[in-house]
Specification:
386 residues; Peroxisomal Thiolase, Chain A, domain 1
Length: 386
Protein backbone atom coordinates (compact mmCIF):
# COMPACT_ATOMS: atom_id res chain seq x y z
CA UNK A 1 0.00 0.00 0.00
CA UNK A 2 1.04 3.61 -0.61
CA UNK A 3 1.39 5.46 2.67
CA UNK A 4 1.44 9.23 3.17
CA UNK A 5 4.24 9.65 5.69
CA UNK A 6 4.65 13.43 5.53
CA UNK A 7 2.56 16.50 4.72
CA UNK A 8 3.31 20.21 4.41
CA UNK A 9 1.22 23.18 3.34
CA UNK A 10 1.17 26.94 2.86
CA UNK A 11 -2.05 28.71 1.91
CA UNK A 12 -4.04 31.85 2.57
CA UNK A 13 -5.04 30.17 5.86
CA UNK A 14 -1.45 30.23 7.08
CA UNK A 15 1.97 28.61 6.99
CA UNK A 16 2.08 25.01 8.13
CA UNK A 17 -0.35 22.16 8.68
CA UNK A 18 -1.39 23.25 12.17
CA UNK A 19 -2.17 26.84 11.12
CA UNK A 20 -4.33 25.58 8.25
CA UNK A 21 -6.13 23.07 10.47
CA UNK A 22 -6.98 25.71 13.05
CA UNK A 23 -8.53 28.01 10.45
CA UNK A 24 -10.51 25.16 8.90
CA UNK A 25 -11.88 24.19 12.31
CA UNK A 26 -12.82 27.80 13.03
CA UNK A 27 -14.39 28.17 9.55
CA UNK A 28 -12.23 31.25 8.94
CA UNK A 29 -11.61 32.14 5.31
CA UNK A 30 -8.30 33.38 3.93
CA UNK A 31 -10.04 35.33 1.15
CA UNK A 32 -9.44 39.10 1.25
CA UNK A 33 -8.45 41.80 -1.22
CA UNK A 34 -4.97 41.09 -2.59
CA UNK A 35 -2.42 43.72 -1.59
CA UNK A 36 1.00 42.00 -1.73
CA UNK A 37 0.98 40.36 -5.15
CA UNK A 38 -0.84 42.96 -7.27
CA UNK A 39 -1.55 46.67 -7.39
CA UNK A 40 -3.72 46.50 -10.51
CA UNK A 41 -6.50 44.10 -9.53
CA UNK A 42 -8.70 44.98 -6.57
CA UNK A 43 -10.48 41.67 -6.18
CA UNK A 44 -10.78 39.10 -3.39
CA UNK A 45 -8.06 36.45 -3.45
CA UNK A 46 -6.49 33.79 -1.28
CA UNK A 47 -3.20 35.59 -0.77
CA UNK A 48 -0.52 34.30 1.62
CA UNK A 49 -0.09 37.14 4.09
CA UNK A 50 3.70 37.37 3.93
CA UNK A 51 5.96 39.37 1.64
CA UNK A 52 8.74 37.64 -0.27
CA UNK A 53 11.30 39.02 2.20
CA UNK A 54 9.32 37.56 5.09
CA UNK A 55 9.14 34.19 3.34
CA UNK A 56 12.91 34.28 2.79
CA UNK A 57 13.43 35.03 6.47
CA UNK A 58 11.35 31.97 7.43
CA UNK A 59 13.51 29.88 5.10
CA UNK A 60 16.84 31.32 6.24
CA UNK A 61 17.54 32.79 2.80
CA UNK A 62 19.23 36.17 2.30
CA UNK A 63 16.74 38.86 1.26
CA UNK A 64 18.92 39.97 -1.66
CA UNK A 65 18.77 36.50 -3.27
CA UNK A 66 16.46 36.52 -6.31
CA UNK A 67 13.89 33.74 -5.94
CA UNK A 68 10.36 33.62 -7.35
CA UNK A 69 7.42 33.65 -4.95
CA UNK A 70 6.27 30.32 -6.39
CA UNK A 71 9.58 28.76 -5.34
CA UNK A 72 9.53 30.31 -1.86
CA UNK A 73 6.06 28.98 -1.12
CA UNK A 74 7.08 25.55 -2.41
CA UNK A 75 10.21 25.48 -0.25
CA UNK A 76 8.20 26.09 2.92
CA UNK A 77 5.64 23.37 2.20
CA UNK A 78 8.12 20.78 0.91
CA UNK A 79 10.45 21.25 3.89
CA UNK A 80 7.57 20.72 6.33
CA UNK A 81 6.52 17.56 4.49
CA UNK A 82 10.05 16.12 4.43
CA UNK A 83 10.66 16.92 8.09
CA UNK A 84 7.36 15.35 9.18
CA UNK A 85 8.15 12.12 7.30
CA UNK A 86 11.29 11.51 9.38
CA UNK A 87 13.16 10.10 6.39
CA UNK A 88 16.46 8.51 7.32
CA UNK A 89 18.19 9.18 4.00
CA UNK A 90 17.30 11.87 1.45
CA UNK A 91 19.89 10.81 -1.11
CA UNK A 92 17.56 8.66 -3.19
CA UNK A 93 14.27 10.44 -2.49
CA UNK A 94 12.48 11.39 -5.72
CA UNK A 95 10.76 14.74 -6.20
CA UNK A 96 7.76 15.52 -8.42
CA UNK A 97 6.57 19.11 -8.30
CA UNK A 98 4.04 21.02 -10.38
CA UNK A 99 3.26 24.61 -11.26
CA UNK A 100 1.47 26.70 -13.86
CA UNK A 101 2.71 30.16 -12.89
CA UNK A 102 6.38 29.29 -12.43
CA UNK A 103 8.48 32.43 -12.06
CA UNK A 104 6.05 34.74 -13.85
CA UNK A 105 6.05 37.09 -10.86
CA UNK A 106 9.65 38.00 -11.74
CA UNK A 107 9.24 38.26 -15.51
CA UNK A 108 7.49 41.68 -15.62
CA UNK A 109 10.58 43.33 -14.11
CA UNK A 110 12.67 42.15 -17.06
CA UNK A 111 9.93 43.16 -19.49
CA UNK A 112 9.67 46.72 -18.16
CA UNK A 113 13.43 47.18 -18.25
CA UNK A 114 13.61 45.77 -21.78
CA UNK A 115 10.83 48.01 -23.07
CA UNK A 116 12.33 51.09 -21.49
CA UNK A 117 16.01 50.51 -22.27
CA UNK A 118 16.26 47.69 -24.81
CA UNK A 119 17.97 45.39 -22.33
CA UNK A 120 17.21 43.69 -19.04
CA UNK A 121 18.64 41.45 -16.32
CA UNK A 122 18.23 37.88 -17.56
CA UNK A 123 18.18 36.59 -13.97
CA UNK A 124 14.54 37.74 -13.89
CA UNK A 125 13.56 35.33 -16.67
CA UNK A 126 15.83 32.43 -15.72
CA UNK A 127 13.18 31.23 -13.26
CA UNK A 128 10.26 31.65 -15.65
CA UNK A 129 9.94 27.98 -16.67
CA UNK A 130 8.27 25.27 -14.58
CA UNK A 131 11.45 23.28 -14.05
CA UNK A 132 13.25 26.10 -12.25
CA UNK A 133 11.13 26.02 -9.09
CA UNK A 134 11.27 22.22 -9.05
CA UNK A 135 15.06 22.17 -9.08
CA UNK A 136 15.42 24.94 -6.48
CA UNK A 137 12.94 23.34 -4.06
CA UNK A 138 14.62 19.95 -4.49
CA UNK A 139 18.04 21.41 -3.76
CA UNK A 140 16.76 23.37 -0.75
CA UNK A 141 15.30 20.20 0.79
CA UNK A 142 18.42 18.16 0.00
CA UNK A 143 16.65 15.55 -2.11
CA UNK A 144 18.99 13.55 -4.30
CA UNK A 145 16.77 11.27 -6.38
CA UNK A 146 14.90 11.51 -9.67
CA UNK A 147 13.00 14.76 -10.22
CA UNK A 148 10.55 16.17 -12.72
CA UNK A 149 7.91 18.87 -13.16
CA UNK A 150 4.27 18.48 -14.19
CA UNK A 151 2.05 21.19 -15.67
CA UNK A 152 -1.47 20.06 -16.54
CA UNK A 153 -3.26 23.23 -15.44
CA UNK A 154 -5.34 22.88 -12.27
CA UNK A 155 -4.97 19.10 -11.99
CA UNK A 156 -1.17 19.37 -11.92
CA UNK A 157 -0.36 18.52 -8.30
CA UNK A 158 -3.00 15.78 -8.18
CA UNK A 159 -1.20 14.26 -11.16
CA UNK A 160 2.13 14.67 -9.37
CA UNK A 161 0.70 12.62 -6.50
CA UNK A 162 -0.53 10.00 -8.94
CA UNK A 163 2.84 9.76 -10.73
CA UNK A 164 4.64 9.39 -7.41
CA UNK A 165 2.37 6.48 -6.45
CA UNK A 166 2.98 4.79 -9.80
CA UNK A 167 6.73 5.13 -9.34
CA UNK A 168 6.53 3.44 -5.94
CA UNK A 169 4.33 0.65 -7.29
CA UNK A 170 6.78 0.07 -10.15
CA UNK A 171 9.73 -0.10 -7.74
CA UNK A 172 11.35 2.99 -9.26
CA UNK A 173 11.66 4.80 -5.92
CA UNK A 174 11.47 4.08 -2.20
CA UNK A 175 10.14 7.51 -1.24
CA UNK A 176 8.73 10.35 -3.35
CA UNK A 177 7.93 13.94 -2.40
CA UNK A 178 4.95 15.05 -4.51
CA UNK A 179 2.83 18.19 -4.79
CA UNK A 180 2.77 21.63 -6.30
CA UNK A 181 3.17 25.35 -5.83
CA UNK A 182 1.80 28.50 -7.45
CA UNK A 183 1.96 32.19 -6.57
CA UNK A 184 -0.32 35.05 -7.46
CA UNK A 185 0.87 37.67 -9.92
CA UNK A 186 -0.59 40.24 -12.31
CA UNK A 187 -0.30 37.87 -15.27
CA UNK A 188 -2.56 35.30 -13.59
CA UNK A 189 -5.12 37.88 -12.53
CA UNK A 190 -5.17 39.32 -16.06
CA UNK A 191 -5.55 35.89 -17.67
CA UNK A 192 -8.54 34.82 -15.60
CA UNK A 193 -10.03 38.30 -15.86
CA UNK A 194 -9.88 38.04 -19.68
CA UNK A 195 -11.83 34.76 -19.43
CA UNK A 196 -14.42 36.57 -17.28
CA UNK A 197 -14.03 33.96 -14.54
CA UNK A 198 -13.08 36.22 -11.62
CA UNK A 199 -15.68 37.04 -8.98
CA UNK A 200 -15.67 40.51 -7.44
CA UNK A 201 -17.01 38.95 -4.22
CA UNK A 202 -15.96 35.95 -2.10
CA UNK A 203 -16.67 32.90 -4.23
CA UNK A 204 -19.79 30.77 -3.67
CA UNK A 205 -19.13 27.22 -4.91
CA UNK A 206 -22.24 25.25 -5.93
CA UNK A 207 -24.53 28.19 -5.21
CA UNK A 208 -27.11 29.07 -7.87
CA UNK A 209 -25.95 32.71 -7.69
CA UNK A 210 -22.23 31.98 -8.00
CA UNK A 211 -20.32 34.60 -10.00
CA UNK A 212 -16.93 33.01 -10.54
CA UNK A 213 -13.75 32.08 -8.73
CA UNK A 214 -11.29 33.79 -6.41
CA UNK A 215 -7.68 33.14 -7.31
CA UNK A 216 -5.35 31.91 -4.60
CA UNK A 217 -1.74 30.98 -4.01
CA UNK A 218 0.03 28.40 -1.96
CA UNK A 219 1.86 25.10 -1.96
CA UNK A 220 1.46 21.63 -0.55
CA UNK A 221 3.57 18.49 -0.66
CA UNK A 222 3.13 14.92 0.49
CA UNK A 223 5.74 12.27 1.13
CA UNK A 224 4.72 8.91 -0.32
CA UNK A 225 6.30 5.60 0.71
CA UNK A 226 5.43 1.94 0.55
CA UNK A 227 3.70 1.23 3.85
CA UNK A 228 6.33 -1.20 5.09
CA UNK A 229 9.00 1.50 4.84
CA UNK A 230 7.10 4.37 6.45
CA UNK A 231 7.96 5.50 9.98
CA UNK A 232 4.97 7.82 10.20
CA UNK A 233 1.61 7.27 8.45
CA UNK A 234 -1.09 9.95 8.13
CA UNK A 235 -3.27 8.00 5.68
CA UNK A 236 -3.05 5.81 2.60
CA UNK A 237 -3.42 6.72 -1.06
CA UNK A 238 -5.68 3.84 -2.03
CA UNK A 239 -6.96 4.97 -5.43
CA UNK A 240 -6.12 7.35 -8.23
CA UNK A 241 -6.94 7.94 -11.89
CA UNK A 242 -6.69 10.56 -14.61
CA UNK A 243 -8.90 11.05 -17.65
CA UNK A 244 -9.42 13.71 -20.28
CA UNK A 245 -12.66 14.42 -22.14
CA UNK A 246 -10.89 16.91 -24.49
CA UNK A 247 -14.14 18.85 -24.65
CA UNK A 248 -12.88 22.45 -24.67
CA UNK A 249 -9.72 24.44 -23.95
CA UNK A 250 -11.15 26.10 -20.84
CA UNK A 251 -14.40 24.28 -20.01
CA UNK A 252 -15.59 20.88 -18.83
CA UNK A 253 -18.25 18.96 -20.77
CA UNK A 254 -21.83 19.45 -19.58
CA UNK A 255 -22.07 15.86 -18.34
CA UNK A 256 -18.58 15.92 -16.78
CA UNK A 257 -17.55 12.83 -18.73
CA UNK A 258 -13.84 13.20 -17.97
CA UNK A 259 -14.58 13.66 -14.27
CA UNK A 260 -16.85 10.61 -14.33
CA UNK A 261 -14.16 8.42 -15.85
CA UNK A 262 -11.53 9.60 -13.37
CA UNK A 263 -13.78 8.93 -10.37
CA UNK A 264 -14.90 5.52 -11.61
CA UNK A 265 -11.35 4.40 -12.36
CA UNK A 266 -10.09 5.66 -8.98
CA UNK A 267 -12.80 3.62 -7.23
CA UNK A 268 -11.74 0.54 -9.18
CA UNK A 269 -8.09 1.14 -8.29
CA UNK A 270 -9.02 1.40 -4.60
CA UNK A 271 -11.22 -1.71 -4.93
CA UNK A 272 -14.14 -0.03 -3.18
CA UNK A 273 -17.71 0.84 -4.08
CA UNK A 274 -19.17 4.35 -4.43
CA UNK A 275 -21.06 3.81 -1.14
CA UNK A 276 -17.71 3.44 0.66
CA UNK A 277 -16.77 7.09 0.04
CA UNK A 278 -17.55 9.09 3.20
CA UNK A 279 -16.70 12.53 1.85
CA UNK A 280 -15.70 14.20 -1.42
CA UNK A 281 -13.46 17.25 -1.44
CA UNK A 282 -14.56 18.55 -4.85
CA UNK A 283 -12.73 20.89 -7.21
CA UNK A 284 -15.62 23.37 -6.82
CA UNK A 285 -14.22 26.60 -8.23
CA UNK A 286 -17.46 28.59 -8.11
CA UNK A 287 -17.66 29.09 -11.88
CA UNK A 288 -20.88 28.35 -13.74
CA UNK A 289 -19.32 25.61 -15.86
CA UNK A 290 -17.24 23.77 -13.28
CA UNK A 291 -19.86 23.39 -10.58
CA UNK A 292 -22.68 22.30 -12.88
CA UNK A 293 -20.44 19.83 -14.72
CA UNK A 294 -18.96 18.43 -11.54
CA UNK A 295 -22.40 18.00 -10.00
CA UNK A 296 -23.56 16.09 -13.08
CA UNK A 297 -20.52 13.84 -12.87
CA UNK A 298 -21.04 13.06 -9.17
CA UNK A 299 -24.70 12.24 -9.74
CA UNK A 300 -23.77 9.89 -12.59
CA UNK A 301 -21.12 8.06 -10.56
CA UNK A 302 -22.72 7.96 -7.13
CA UNK A 303 -26.45 8.35 -7.65
CA UNK A 304 -26.92 9.14 -3.98
CA UNK A 305 -24.06 11.66 -3.70
CA UNK A 306 -22.11 11.41 -0.41
CA UNK A 307 -21.32 14.49 1.70
CA UNK A 308 -19.18 16.86 -0.35
CA UNK A 309 -17.77 20.36 -0.13
CA UNK A 310 -15.43 22.79 -1.81
CA UNK A 311 -12.69 24.34 0.30
CA UNK A 312 -11.83 26.97 -2.31
CA UNK A 313 -13.87 29.55 -0.39
CA UNK A 314 -11.18 29.14 2.30
CA UNK A 315 -8.08 29.35 0.08
CA UNK A 316 -9.09 30.60 -3.35
CA UNK A 317 -8.24 28.57 -6.44
CA UNK A 318 -4.54 27.87 -6.12
CA UNK A 319 -4.20 26.49 -9.67
CA UNK A 320 -1.45 23.85 -9.90
CA UNK A 321 -1.23 23.64 -6.10
CA UNK A 322 -4.96 23.02 -5.65
CA UNK A 323 -4.87 19.22 -5.87
CA UNK A 324 -2.11 18.89 -3.27
CA UNK A 325 -3.60 21.49 -0.92
CA UNK A 326 -6.93 19.69 -1.05
CA UNK A 327 -5.16 16.35 -0.60
CA UNK A 328 -3.79 17.68 2.69
CA UNK A 329 -7.28 18.89 3.66
CA UNK A 330 -8.63 15.42 2.80
CA UNK A 331 -6.04 13.77 5.03
CA UNK A 332 -6.86 16.21 7.84
CA UNK A 333 -10.51 15.29 7.38
CA UNK A 334 -9.66 11.62 8.00
CA UNK A 335 -7.30 12.31 10.91
CA UNK A 336 -9.67 14.69 12.70
CA UNK A 337 -13.06 13.24 11.78
CA UNK A 338 -14.21 16.48 10.16
CA UNK A 339 -16.18 17.45 7.07
CA UNK A 340 -15.09 20.91 5.95
CA UNK A 341 -17.90 23.31 4.99
CA UNK A 342 -18.57 25.10 1.71
CA UNK A 343 -18.47 28.72 2.84
CA UNK A 344 -20.87 31.34 1.43
CA UNK A 345 -23.35 28.76 0.13
CA UNK A 346 -27.04 29.74 0.23
CA UNK A 347 -29.11 28.52 -2.73
CA UNK A 348 -28.91 25.12 -4.51
CA UNK A 349 -28.20 25.11 -8.24
CA UNK A 350 -31.51 23.30 -8.73
CA UNK A 351 -33.95 21.89 -6.20
CA UNK A 352 -33.20 18.26 -7.06
CA UNK A 353 -29.44 18.31 -6.47
CA UNK A 354 -27.62 17.23 -3.33
CA UNK A 355 -26.55 20.23 -1.27
CA UNK A 356 -22.93 20.54 -0.16
CA UNK A 357 -21.83 20.45 3.46
CA UNK A 358 -22.30 24.02 4.71
CA UNK A 359 -21.34 23.77 8.39
CA UNK A 360 -18.40 22.09 10.10
CA UNK A 361 -19.43 18.52 10.84
CA UNK A 362 -17.94 15.75 12.94
CA UNK A 363 -18.07 12.36 11.23
CA UNK A 364 -16.30 9.03 10.92
CA UNK A 365 -14.22 9.43 7.78
CA UNK A 366 -12.52 6.36 6.36
CA UNK A 367 -12.39 7.16 2.63
CA UNK A 368 -12.15 10.61 1.04
CA UNK A 369 -12.21 11.30 -2.68
CA UNK A 370 -10.50 14.49 -3.84
CA UNK A 371 -11.15 15.71 -7.38
CA UNK A 372 -9.18 18.14 -9.54
CA UNK A 373 -10.06 19.43 -13.01
CA UNK A 374 -7.84 21.43 -15.31
CA UNK A 375 -8.14 23.38 -18.54
CA UNK A 376 -8.15 21.17 -21.59
CA UNK A 377 -10.42 18.63 -19.88
CA UNK A 378 -7.74 17.08 -17.66
CA UNK A 379 -9.47 15.44 -14.65
CA UNK A 380 -7.94 13.54 -11.74
CA UNK A 381 -9.50 11.75 -8.78
CA UNK A 382 -7.56 10.64 -5.71
CA UNK A 383 -8.84 8.46 -2.86
CA UNK A 384 -7.32 8.71 0.61
CA UNK A 385 -8.10 6.06 3.21
CA UNK A 386 -7.78 5.66 6.95
Amino acid sequence: MIAISGIGIVSALGVGVEANLQKLCKCETGIREAHITTEKFHVPAGEVQHTNDELKSMLGIATEKLISRTTLLGMLAAKEAVDSAQLANLKNVAFISSTTVGGMDLTPTFYKDYVNSGSGNLHYVAQHDCGSSTLMIRDYCGLGGYYTAISTACSSSANAIMLGARMLEAGEADAVVVGGTDALCDYTFAGFNSLMLLSTKPCRPFDRNREGLNLGEGAAFLVLQRAENATNIYAYLSGYANANDAHHQTAMSDDGRGAQMAMQQALRKANIEPKDIDYINVHGTGTQNNDASEMAAMQAVFGNVPPFSSTKAFTGHTLAAAGAIEAVFSILSINNGMLWPTLNYETPITEDVTKPVTTLKHATVNNVMSTSHGFGGNSTALIFSN
